[in-house]
Amino acid sequence: MSIFNIVQNRRYYFILSAVLIGIGLVAMVISFITTGAPFQIGVDFRSGTRFEVQFQDVVTEDQIRDVYTDFGISNPMITSIRAEGLENAWQIRTEFVSPQTAKDIETELGARLSPIVPDTTRTESVSPSIGAEVTRA
Fold first, then answer.
1. Same domain, 47 and 87
2. Residue 70 confidence (pLDDT)
3. How many angstroms separate the CA atoms of 21 and 15, rounded?
4. 38 and which of 28, 54, 67, 131 could share a cystine (Cβ 3.0–4.6 Å)?
5. What angle do CA 78, 124, 45 make, to 5 degrees?
6. Coil, helix or strand for 114?
7. Residue 18: pLDDT above 80?
8. Where are the beta strands (DSSP E) in the chain?
9. pLDDT digits (tens, 9 = 90+) for 43-99
10. Helix-strand-coil percent breakdown of the chain, rounded to 5?
């Protein structure tokens, strides 16, 4: 005798499965309505630039956002990186910016907010044409 009595309770398991699938479908529809895509895809699958910087002093998300706004980037996604040995580290995702603009942003962050810890800055970009090709595949 099984604890779950799968055959006897199959209707409950079918209902549970249907409810979970329904919740997933509703979440996809809501995501599609709000973002235009059923899933949130990262910079790796769409065009964009990702910056990782570590400051010597404490800075706030609003201070970082102000620098990006001055460069015409209206909605950067800013996330604090929390890991052992990392303090004042941030990840910023934006629309695609040219390599020169990325360097200018890094320079401005260090000059206006706090000096950047040497050898901790990382910038990755995916161009719009590559992003479109990857998501199409």
1. yes
2. 94
3. 10
4. 28
5. 85
6. coil
7. yes
8. 48-54, 77-83, 86-94, 122-126
9. 555 678 899 999 999 999 999 999 999 999 988 999 999 888 788 999 999 988 999
10. 45, 20, 35
Same domain flag for 57 and 111? yes
Clarify whether residues 47 and 24 are in a common domain: no
Number of domains composing the chain: 2
- pTM to 2 decimals? 0.63
CA distances, 76 to each of 25, 39, 66, 85, 111 (Å):
28, 19, 10, 25, 19
Instruction: Please write the tens of the pLDDT for every residue from 102-124.
Output: 999 999 999 999 998 888 888 88
Asked whether residue 84 falls in the same domain as residue 101, the answer is yes
Residue 18: both structure tokens together:
């249907």
pLDDT value at 35 more than 80: no
